[in-house]
Amino acid sequence: MEEAEALPVSIITGFLGSGKTTLLQHLLRHPDMRRTAVIINEFGEIGIDHDLVAASSEDTVLMESGCICCTIRGDLVNTLRDLYVRRVRGEVPEFERVLIETTGLADPAPILNMLMRESFAVRHYVLDGVVTVVDGLNGLAQLESHAEAMKQAAVADRLVVTKGDRVAAERLDRLIRRLRALNPAAPILSAVMGVLDPAAILGAGPFQTFWRITL
């Protein structure tokens, strides 16, 4: 029997307070996200609007839109394996892509390594891209003070600057110049109050930056 096509995985990362939660809240409401599974650390962290929840269990929430949200069980490999098995068994809707939200202090490199090297992940999933959310107000200071923030920006396929409407033009320009110096290949997008078309960040294409940068 022919093996099923690998499911694309997008990673959403960004330093503490960057706006990942707000971005996810809007993505979960978008009709294009209907057949998406979202892996997060805790449901409370994304503030799911209970009016949009169709059903829930201890570790899974099914949105009325068709989105599935699940929390990490043990480690990420086990969560991906469990989610895939439940999809095959028909215990969850047949999602077509996965979003993984990292914590604000996470180094994305181990997740990328796992997706590219762990046997189950390689067979059933394919890395689609890394989306890094950057705080327009505090991003420049975070890049200078925290290695995690710099790594998150350096490995991105898409950089999303938030709160740009609350920043002076000169300050925002300095941040964008710094991001381009760290990662000249990644397009820089803007999101106001987390509003961004999923098409702008999903389907980013094969991940390349990780192999060119020593973290």
Gross morphology? globular
The average pLDDT score comes to 85
Count the E strands.
9
Percent range for β-strand residues: 15-25%
Low-confidence stretches: 207-215
Spatial gap, N to C terminus: 41 Å
What is the N-to-C succession of helices and strands?
EHEEEEHEHHEHHEHEH
Biggest pleated sheet: 9 strands, mixed
Order of strands across the main sheet: 3-4-5-2-6-1-7-8-9
Which structural class do you get from the secondary structure elements?
A: alpha/beta
What would your notes on this structure say?
- The chain is an alpha/beta fold and 215 residues long.
- It has eight helices and nine strands.
- It has helices spanning 20-29, 76-89, 109-117, 119-124, 139-145, 147-154, 169-182, 209-212; strands spanning 7-14, 36-40, 53-56, 60-63, 68-71, 97-101, 125-135, 158-162, 188-191.
- The chain has a nine-stranded mixed beta sheet with strand order 3-4-5-2-6-1-7-8-9, sandwiched between helices.
- Helix 5 (139-145) crosses helix 6 (147-154).
- The longest helix is centred in the middle third of the chain and has 14 residues, at 76-89.
- The chain is globular.
- Residues 207-215 have low confidence and may be disordered.
Which terms summarize this structure?
23% strand; 215 residues; globular; alpha/beta; disordered C terminus
